[in-house]
Every structure is written in structure tokens, then in C-alpha cells.
Write a structure and sequence with these properties.
Blueprint: E1 5-8, H1 19-27, E2 30-33, E3 37-41, H2 44-49, E4 59-62, H3 65-77, E5 87-90, H4 93-98, E6 109-112, H5 121-126, E7 131-137, H6 143-150, E8 154-165, E9 178-181, H7 184-193, E10 203-207, H8 209-217, E11 222-226, H9 234-245
Parallel strand pairs: 1-2, 1-9, 4-5, 4-7, 5-6, 7-8, 9-10, 10-11
Antiparallel strand pairs: 3-8
Helix pairs in contact: 1-9, 7-8
């Protein structure tokens, strides 16, 4: 069957240069965007239940913009004055630059990775006897904790925000040829919103091994998989598939 309409389970890109725009124009497709999950910050009371004292930490590990927003939000709500000597260890340049929303960038000690926590290994070793706070969501892959433990660092996780299933009830009677997923949480959201969901003629696109596995564990057949040697991005994988079936 030909593909005409695609639903991407993420927020719509703000940039006009998004590869999805080129995909739409090249293949004459309708591409809609709808987050299947969203983030909600926890309240100060929940942080206190975790027995976290921000005063104990001179270093903060930041892996996402959500972590940045919720760390500074809760510091303000809990009336914690962040020391100017606090060091920030950021997963990527995008996260580091986002810090400018809250701190004067040039006056802070900010260490930046290239997209992976392992990039900061040598920097962590310079401060191996110091304490680290790691703000996260309620969902956390094991690779970062495992890495920090392998370095024998003194660190504590702080769950400052949660991943929540979005309400998709208005999509019940809307049909798409392809549903695009980027995380196991997106798959969970689909079935929590529509417990009786049947794939039928709908094609599933999934990015990453854990997402593909989550889809298959729910009995879904994944027709579009990324990344691969031929299609390192989801848009490239979709393009190859649509050109073939259309």
C-alpha cells in the first residue's frame, strides 16, 4: 500500500530546515507531529523525600535541557542559592549553551562532551574526589550510572522530572499510514491510550534497538528501522521505504 500520511510521535520541529520538510516536499506526503509523551517537573516536597541536599554538591551533571530547566526551577523553589563556583558537566554543546538561560556562561566552569557521557572521562578524573549531583527524569538508562560508578565517583541521582503519557484520545478515529517512534515510552503511550490498538495496515517506524524491541514485544511488526548503514537517520529510512512502496 502507498504511503500518504505519517504521524511522528515528537513535537513539530521549529526549524524550516527540518529534514521532514524536505521529505514532505520530495515525496508529496502529509507529515503530522504529536508528542506521545511529555515531561512534568516534580515538586519540592518530592525532592525532599529523596533526601537530597543541594548544598552537598559542587558539581552538577546535565544531560538534557529538561535537566537544566528543572534543576534551576527547583533550586529557586527550594530557595537554594547556587554557588558561583559550581561546576557543570554537560553532555553536549547544545546543553551547555542552554545554560546561558540561567547563568553567565563565561563566568562559570562548564565542561562539555560531544554527545556522550564517556567524552568527559578525563575531566571527571580531575575532580574524582568531589561530589556530583545528577538531575534526571524517572526513566534513566543504565549507561550513565554504570559509567559514573566505573570511575568510582561520589554521585547522587536526583529525580527532578517525570516522563508522562500524553492524552491522545482525539486521534482514535484518525488513520495514518506510518506511525514513527523514537523511544519505548512512545510505544507504551500508544497502548495506554489505545489498549485495543490493532496494527492492521499501519506501518511502524522505530528508531533505536530498544524502541524496536519494545514495539515487537507489543506484537507490532516494524517495517521501518533506523539507524542503519544505509539510513543513519529516521527521515532517510522513511524516504527509502516510501520510495519503494509508492
Amino acid at each position: 500500500m502507498k504511503v500518504k500520511r505519517i504521524l511522528v510521535s515528537q513535537p513539530e520541529p521549529s526549524s524550516e530546515k527540518s529534514p521532514y520538510n524536505r521529505l514532505k516536499e520530495k515525496l508529496n506526503l502529509v507529515v503530522d507531529f504529536r508528542p506521545f509523551i511529555h515531561v512534568e517537573g516534580v515538586i519540592a516536597k518530592e525532592v525532599r523525600r529523596q533526601k537530597i541536599d543541594f548544598n552537598k554538591f559542587d558539581n552538577v551533571i546535565l544531560t538534557s535541557r529538561n535537566a537544566v530547566d528543572n534543576y534551576f526551577r527547583l533550586c529557586k523553589e527550594m530557595r537554594f542559592t547556587i554557588k558561583t563556583t559550581t561546576k557543570y558537566f554537560c553532555l553536549s554543546e547544545a546543553v551547555a549553551y542552554y545554560l546561558q538561560k540561567y547563568v553567565v556562561y563565561r563566568k562559570r566552569k562548564i565542561y562539555v562532551g560531544e554527545g556522550k557521557i564517556f567524552d568527559l572521562k578525563n575531566v571527571f578524573k580531575k575532580f574524582e574526589n568531589e561530589n556530583y549531583l545528577f538531575p534526571t527524569s524517572d526513566l534513566l538508562k543504565s549507561e550513565v550510572p554504570d559509567f559514573l560508578n566505573s570511575l568510582k565517583l561520589s554521585w547522587q541521582r536526583a529525580i527532578l522530572y517525570k516522563t508522562v503519557v500524553s492524552d491522545l484520545s482525539d486521534l482514535r478515529d484518525v488513520y495514518y499510514d506510518i506511525l514513527v517512534f523514537f523511544s519505548p515510552s512512545g510505544i507504551e503511550s500508544l497502548f495506554k491510550n489505545f489498549p485495543d490498538f490493532k496494527q492492521n495496515k499501519t506501518r511502524i517506524a522505530a528508531y533505536g534497538k530498544t524502541t524496536i524491541k519494545a514495539a515487537e514485544n507489543h506484537g507490532l511488526k516494524v517495517q521501518v528501522k533506523a539507524p542503519s548503514d544505509q539510513s543513519p537517520s529516521m527521515t532517510m529510512a522513511i524516504e527509502r521505504y516510501v520510495e519503494k512502496v509508492n
